[in-house]
Design a protein that fits this description.
The strands form 2 sheets. This protein has a 7-stranded parallel beta sheet with strand order 3-2-1-4-5-6-7, with helices on both faces. It is α/β, with parallel strands linked by helices and 383 residues long. Strand 1, helix 1 and strand 2 form a beta-alpha-beta unit. Helix 3 crosses helix 4, helix 8 packs across helix 13 and helix 11 runs parallel beside helix 12. The protein is elongated, with a radius of gyration of 22 Å. It contains 14 helices and 13 strands. 37% of the residues lie in helices and 15% in strands. It folds into 2 domains: 177 residues, 3-Layer(aba) Sandwich (Rossmann fold), CATH 3.40.50; 160 residues, Rossmann fold.
Length: 383
């Protein structure tokens, strides 16, 4: 069946790094592959080049600033929606969502595109966050998010919520993957002190959410038990929260772990780092909406130990329940990690859940059904 292409405009604060940005690019690439038009509006960033390489279009607009001046962007966005003949306006963050919704609402009803929101986070519950529930369809990226919306925003119709779990590409994170000889040679040359050590990895931007202090306490406790280990902290420092990163580094010194912790910063070779890790930790002290850095290593067969709450707990319960520990239970965390370190590597079974292909199929299907470009009569995963 020949289908008329759909023009989809996604609004995000920026395209630097992070799960929201990555999900935006994945959907953008799939739109192009499906013969549709993909437009992303953001303040720009390092991922713009990759977005353009996939065939999408990018428009720079500073819709990322929590300032009354950002409201001045509304007329321009309204004009862009009309010029690009947008069929679906998809917002993924609160400030862009407000700008997008106000621009959308100001259009005559017959000129409005379909309005879709994705709730990516467990935001504070208030009027500002409520905007993420204003979509004609509200995508929940996990059961955790779906429950959060229904519990905290009782005015939202359950029928408007589409559960579309995020996923990963098993080709990008293949099971039992081993790094190349070239990568290993460079890794060993760059980090000779890690030879003979079991590597424990914590991945994610250096923010309070990610549980860095719990990770350092764990490394200290395991070291005192005689384990030959080394901790890897992988991820950007948030320039807006430099004091937190400084506090983490100070804690490393206070715990006398200077020779036992390596800060790797942003890395494009996270797959290889997972592969050489004995355990990946997921220690977010606040519940996460999903938990990509839990799912990625598990897909590769690398064991993950994480706090049993939010999206991380949801993934572990479905895929690797033996990796779950109670929130902030230092004793249980230490005992679990110590037990895992007694073997070469705790086996992780292969699984078929949380596939990126399913995420993208369901998202494109939602766009097509909302615009009447599909023969399907029911929304995927509508709850």
């Amino acid at each position: 069946m020949n289908r008329k292409p759909i023009s989809v405009m996604q609004l995000v604060p920026s395209l630097e790094s992070g799960g929201v940005e990555r999900g935006t690019l994945e959907v953008a690439d799939e739109l192009v592959r499906s013969g549709h038009r993909s437009i992303v509006v953001s303040a720009g960033g390092r991922l713009v080049e990759r977005l353009l390489a996939g065939g999408s279009e990018h428009i720079i607009s500073h819709i990322d600033r929590k300032s009354p001046l950002t409201l001045a962007r509304i007329p321009k966005l309204r004009k862009l929606i009309c010029e690009y003949r947008v069929d679906v306006l998809h917002v993924r963050s609160r400030i862009p969502a407000w700008i997008g919704w106000l621009a959308w609402k100001s259009l005559p009803k017959q000129q409005r595109p379909r309005f879709v929101t994705t709730v990516h986070g467990l935001y504070s519950v208030n009027r500002f966050s409520r905007i993420m529930t204003y979509g004609e369809r509200v995508i929940a990226v996990s059961e955790t998010i779906r429950n959060y919306v229904l519990e905290n925003y009782p005015g939202v119709s359950p029928q408007s919520i589409c559960l579309i779990p995020r996923g990963i590409d098993p080709q990008e994170f293949p099971y039992a993957c081993s790094p190349s000889h070239e990568w290993l040679a460079k890794w060993n040359a760059d980090h000779p002190s890690l030879s003979g050590k079991r590597l424990l990895t914590l991945a994610g931007r250096i923010t309070r959410l990610k549980g860095h202090f719990d990770f350092l306490d764990l490394i200290s406790a395991l070291k005192s038990e005689g384990h030959q280990i080394h901790g890897l902290i992988v991820g950007d420092e948030d320039p807006r929260r430099k004091s937190y990163a400084d506090a983490v580094r100070q804690s490393v010194r206070q715990l006398q772990l200077t020779d036992d912790i390596t800060f790797l910063g942003h890395r494009s070779d996270i797959r290889e780092i997972y592969a050489v890790s004995s355990i990946v930790l997921s220690l977010s002290t606040k519940p996460e909406s999903f938990g990509r850095t839990t799912l990625e290593p598990l897909a590769m067969g690398v064991p993950v130990i994480g706090y049993d709450h939010g999206g991380v707990g949801e993934i572990l319960r479905n895929v690797f329940p033996q990796g779950a520990v109670p929130l902030r239970d230092a004793g249980a965390l230490r005992e679990k990690a110590s037990t895992f370190l007694q073997t070469d590597r705790v086996p992780v079974p292969e699984f078929d859940q949380f596939r990126l292909s399913d995420t993208l199929d369901q998202t494109i299907s939602l766009y097509e059904q909302l615009t009447g470009r599909s023969s399907e009569t029911s929304l995927h995963k509508a709850a």
